[in-house]
Amino acid sequence: MTVVGGPEEQDRACAALSKVGDYFARGGFQIQFELTVRFVTQVELNDSSTAHQSVSGYYRANNNEILMLRANAPWTSERKPWHLSWDEEIGLSILEHEVAHAALAYIMGGNYERLPHAWHEALAYAIQISLMKPELRAKVLTKFPAVQAFGSTLEINDVVYAFDPDVFAVAAYKTYVKNGDIEFLKQAIDLKFELSDPTGF
Ligand SMILES: [Zn+2]
After folding, report:
1. What average pLDDT does the chain have?
2. Is 196 part of a structural domain of the chain?
3. Which member of 8, 17, 44, 117 has the lowest number of beta carbons within 10 Å of its beta carbon?
């Protein structure tokens, strides 16, 4: 891994990588990250087809690079993931989300684009929320008390995602937990689900 950033950012990137790596190892996946993590003051989204809703962090599969907003960037005061204020903990959590994308890319290889974009987001969010400390996870979930698991995995699509990414994330997490978390992850990686928009990546 290459980190473009200061010493604290190097530490944060290493922490995120080992946490996500350990999580996937529990599912039997050993990941050799060949990744560049670039800490920047603004995350620019150029490739519109795969544009991430959040501008806090962004994973680019084509060059295996994560762009991550610096903790002291002026932008962070305007970012309110799950209606929570940005702090170091939520920043690290968002970085873990991006590393989860990179882990999925590593595992899936040539199949990466066969899993629709919304599925990649659902899995990255589910892993991100799973990795949160219980206090932070409780804060996120209590902001959205009415959100339930998806009734059908066909609801994991770009329309539902774009409508409200925060709600989508909570529903994805609940769906993931309800369906055996890592077992659900393995099935998604093996493309075992009926996918609603296979060309929507
Ligand atoms: Zn994402």
Report:
1. 91
2. no
3. 44
8 A C-beta contact, residue 101 and residue 120 = yes
Mean predicted confidence (pLDDT) in 137-153: 97
Q: Which of 182, 126, 119, 127 is nearest to 149 (CA)?
A: 126
pLDDT at 73: 85
What does the block give as tokens for 68?
């991550």
How far does residue 94's CA lie from ligand 1's centre (Å)? Answer: 9
Domain count, the chain: 1
Instruction: Say what the pLDDT of residue 129 is.
Output: 98
pTM: 0.92
For residue 58, give the 3-state DSSP assignment: strand
Please give the structure tokens belonging to residue 103.
């882990």
Radius of gyration, CA atoms only, the chain: 16
Instruction: Give the Å distance between the CA of 98 and the centre of ligand 1.
Output: 6
Instruction: Flag whether 194 is in a domain.
Output: no
- Angle of CA points 146, 55, 175, to nearest 5°: 30
Residue 199 lies in a domain: no
Judge whether 53 lies within some domain: yes
| Structural domain boundaries, residue 139 | 2-189
Using an 8 Å Cβ cutoff, are 169 and 82 in contact? yes
